[in-house]
Amino acid sequence: MKGIKDIRIILINENEGKEEFIKKFLLLRDFKILYYTDENGLKNSIDIVKREGYRSKEVLILKNFQGRFLQPCPCSSGVICCNYWVINTCFNCLFNCTYCFLNSYLNSFGIVQFTNIDKFYKEIDTFLENADTEQIYRIGTGEFTDSLMMDEVTAIGEHLITKTKSKKNVLIELKSKSKNVDHLLDVKEKGNTVLSWSLNTERNISRYEEDTASLTERIQAAKKAELAGYFLAFHFDPIIIYEGWEKDYKNLIDFLFHTINPERIVWISMGCFRYSPGFKERLRDSFPDEEMTVEEMFPGIDGKFRYLKNKRLMVYKTIKKYINYYTYKPFIYLCMETSDIWYTIFKTNYTSSNMLGQDFSNHLKNNFLQ
Q1: 8 and 99 inside one domain
Q2: Residue 361 and residue 52: Cα distance in Å, rounded?
Q3: How much is the pTM?
Q4: 129 Cβ partners below 8 Å, 6+ apart?
Q5: Residues 238 and 318 in one domain
Q6: Is 80 exceeded by the pLDDT of residue 281?
Q7: Structural domain boundaries, residue 14
Q8: Is the pLDDT of residue 285 over 80?
């Protein structure tokens, strides 16, 4: 598994080089450092490191973020959304997942870690001060990066846990494909923090999730988090089908529930592999041997290509059955699916995302937040 040790060069704004947050990275070891002064200088620096043969995942860019650190999840139009909130602390990650939407969404070079962290914390404080105490907020850092890949350096996870520990209606989710949890195990007051993992079959991990922790390492890390007192969540997303997928996903779920206490799992998501127009062509340039897109797929209401409806229904029914063999305690939900898919799987007629959000909140209140 790759970690911060695999970064080879750091690009730093020379006007910010003495800030405490940046010093955390400089104290680690003797990285090569390249300074820039403005956006043009950054562009020139990126051109230099490209010519010198550095790969995107080896380059860490430290810079300020001018956008919103906290925003509603940018879910697809026309589908039922779960009313999740996304924290933007970093763009891109150390891992090299073939299917990652960031490959086409960001179209950028390097891992960009935002450094104006004080502005970020103030934005979070303002949000928490004005939050409706009757509403449940699920907030996560893992949409545009991996939450834990270098959290032992940034300490963003612990800061968020500390800020929300007394908020009974806020669940902070730190989502990862790493095994990097040891630095969080001794945090004393964990509040309603959720440590979560994206899970896939061993076959899919070996083919499509390069440089990530193994399935065993992820579940063992989750066990550590459980024993330390954290809530847990798991994401079967993207589900990639192939000959024998049913048996492999059953083995995965058996392993998960033979290791983890389901009473600590607050939610589980399911989402089939999907991609936006143009992604397939870009994918073939970087991963010419990939086999994910050979299945018959058609564009949905949001323009994204998906497996045919009958296949997706079969997948969701199968995995839900495997999960429910062990537990009904977690809230199981679908990622980026239409209301008719929801109804077929759960027999609940969600005509709006707010309806799902209310059901989700009620489930958490009744089962975990009493």
Answers
A1: no
A2: 51
A3: 0.95
A4: none
A5: yes
A6: no
A7: 1-63
A8: no
What kind and span of H or E run contains 266?
Answer: strand 265-272
Residue 211: which region, alpha, beta or left (left: phi > 0; alpha: psi -120 to 50)?
Answer: left
Distance CA 368, CA 362 (A): 10
Q: Could you tell me if residue 141 is inside a domain?
A: yes
Q: Strand pairing of 137-140 and 85-87? A: parallel
AA identity, residue 112: V
pLDDT in tens, 304-345: 999 999 999 999 999 999 999 999 999 999 999 999 999 999
CA distance linking residue 289 with residue 36, whole number of Å = 37
pLDDT attached to residue 154: 97
Measured CA to CA, the distance from residue 300 to residue 13 in angstroms comes to: 43
Q: What would the two tokens of residue 240 be? A: 């990639």
Beta partners for residue 195, in sequence order:
174, 232
Segment 34-73, tens digit of pLDDT: 999 999 999 999 999 999 999 999 999 999 999 999 999 8
